[in-house]
Design goal:
Number of helices of chain A: 8
Organism (chains A, B): Rhizopus microsporus
CATH class of the largest domain in chain A: Alpha Beta
CATH superfamily of the largest domain in chain A: Spore Coat Polysaccharide Biosynthesis Protein SpsA, Chain A
Order of helices and strands of chain A: HEEHEHEHEEHEEEHEEEHHE
Pfam family, one (chains A, B): Anp1
Radius of gyration of chain A: 26 Å
Largest interface: A-B, 65 and 65 residues
Structural class of chain A: alpha/beta
Family (chains A, B): Belongs to the ANP1/MMN9/VAN1 family.
Distance between the termini of chain A: 88 Å
Number of domains of chain A: 2
Keywords (chains A, B): Membrane, Transmembrane, Transmembrane helix
Oligomer: homodimer
Shape of chain A: elongated
CATH topology of the largest domain in chain A: Spore Coat Polysaccharide Biosynthesis Protein SpsA, Chain A
Protein name (chains A, B): Anp1-domain-containing protein
């Protein structure tokens, strides 16, 4: 073999090698460009009914000065049996000086095996510079209404920023709800209601009691009572000494009428925010958390009142428990 | 040179080549993985004031049976002098059988030079199966209120699905607004108001007139009048024969009081949706488009009433014109 032939052979080999890798490389590049393009354009038909298979859930949690709750919160989430790639998480941290944001940031970036990873995690910071004036006990009732209006704004900010076309359901889960079944999402999805809330209680090693008083039904007395007050007066539960609203609370309805089934559902007129599961379209239509009086309610109860006005139905699970930090 | 040396040389060359490209390829791959990760985690401080530089604008437009308007709409958008990479677009197409969705889809995917490309385009479909019953003229006023409630839901769906943490401003721009200055966004951003609306008129070759009657101020008479009606009665403008609301419309306030400056601003109590510019945080707080009566208003006027209740101020530009299709 003469030297020139050998040189030609080497040149040919090198060129083939370059061409082959150039081809590989450019294919991978265009594949990447395609991946990026899927974020630049998005076409979605929202007429689709809520998906039965592969429904995508957005879990939303407002946090305030709660660094100590973040680990328990994430440990519980990681146990959820619902496929994690169909779950996105959204957090709004407000008025916190205890490192809640940094703690959430580090848990969000935690290295996890593929099957445990959530679809997307969004952490927002938004302060409302509002502290409950603890000394003004005699204004407690009014202070509660102001506090609820701030909470409404923070829930609205979290919802409007994180909800996107891919979501079928939104789970509102308070950071201090520390115990719930790992099958929570599978069960709430299969119940297929517009809005549904489990019963939020607290428990210690030997005692338990109702926690979320905002899951309730109107009664004949409560409806009559509302006719006697100004249309923009705000009502809240848990201040019986100041104001008896005559509502029937779900915390008092466990096993009522001999119905002991865990999935037994009752119609509600208002919900709290400790653990409430909402069909995404209910929020999309405009059922947000009013920071203003709507049918005598603000925040989560106001949300339920708006949802009902828009034709949606609200349900409670009196025998299905989730537990709040005490 | 013995043959074995030559073989060694060739092997060495090929190996180097493989190693070099493997390195190039893997670097590009990890770069891509980084790009994808930026979508999986997002940390945002919403306490930041609205950005003066690099503010990101979301332009939202509901479309219904409007395929014929899509080209003009996009041609106008492409002329905007504000940097296009700081603009995202969101469309909601409802109850359309004329190919509006397909037309929007094709314009969204149009190949454009880098500097003309928008940041992100989202096109949603959501039908409300609602047709104005044209024969029932005697119910025209009631029908208008029903229609506005549907419009409110469609605006809320569009807003809640597309608004994200990156946006500083939202421009509501109706698909049939066919003429406006290319400097619209630069000018509205520099005015730095919570909510601000230019004056929407129509014009032909020799005539012009006011179009958007929903930009208005309350008057002493309108406030007194509202005390005489049920708190949940909905008012709409443009039905003087049925109902005189006593509002002062911005379409009637051009050059009023000798103020001829194009950027002259006046306080408003309600806005329409033809062309309205909103600080994103106003929407995030919960100022959506009520499909229910709020202070006697629904949809865009209701949005303004909620925004005012939340402490935001509403402004109009009586001498700054945008033109509606006639």
């Amino acid at each position: 073999m003469p030297l020139t032939t050998k040189i030609q052979l080497i040149t040919l080999l090198i060129t083939s090698c370059i061409l082959f890798y150039w081809f590989l490389f450019s294919t991978s590049q265009s594949h990447i460009t395609d991946q990026c393009n899927q974020y630049r354009y998005s076409f979605t038909n929202l007429n689709r009914p809520t998906r039965k298979e592969d429904a995508h859930v957005l879990i939303l949690t407002p946090f305030k000065q709660s660094a100590h709750l973040v680990d328990t919160y994430f440990d519980n989430l990681l146990k959820l049996t619902y496929p994690h790639h169909l779950i996105s998480l959204g957090f709004l941290v407000s008025d916190s000086t205890d490192g809640t944001f940094e703690k959430l940031q580090s848990r969000a970036q935690q290295t996890l095996p593929e099957w445990q990873r959530f679809n997307k995690i969004t952490v927002l910071q938004k302060d409302y510079k509002y502290d409950l004036p603890t000394n003004e006990d005699r204004h407690k009732f009014e202070v509660q209404i102001q506090r609820r209006a701030i909470m409404a704004k923070s829930r609205n900010t979290l919802l409007s920023t994180t909800l996107s076309e891919e979501h079928d359901w939104v789970l509102w889960l308070d950071g201090d709800v520390i115990e719930y079944p790992a099958t929570l999402l599978d069960e709430l999805i299969s119940l297929d209601k517009d809005v549904i809330a489990p019963n939020c209680w607290w428990h210690s090693y030997n005692e338990k009691g109702g926690y979320d008083k905002n899951n309730w039904q109107e009664t004949n007395e409560s409806i009559e009572f509302q006719k006697t007050i100004p249309h923009d007066q705000v009502l809240v539960e848990g201040y019986e000494a100041v104001l008896n609203t005559h509502r029937k609370l779900m915390i008092d309805m466990v096993n009522e009428g001999g119905n002991t089934d865990m999935y037994y559902t009752i119609p509600l007129d208002a919900v709290g925010g400790t653990c409430t599961f909402v069909r995404a379209q209910v929020h999309r239509d405009g059922a947000i958390f009013p920071p203003f009086a709507y049918q005598h309610q603000v925040e989560t109860e106001g949300f339920a009142k708006i949802a009902k006005s828009l034709g949606y139905s609200i349900w409670g699970l009196p025998n299905y428990f989730v537990y709040h930090y005490i």
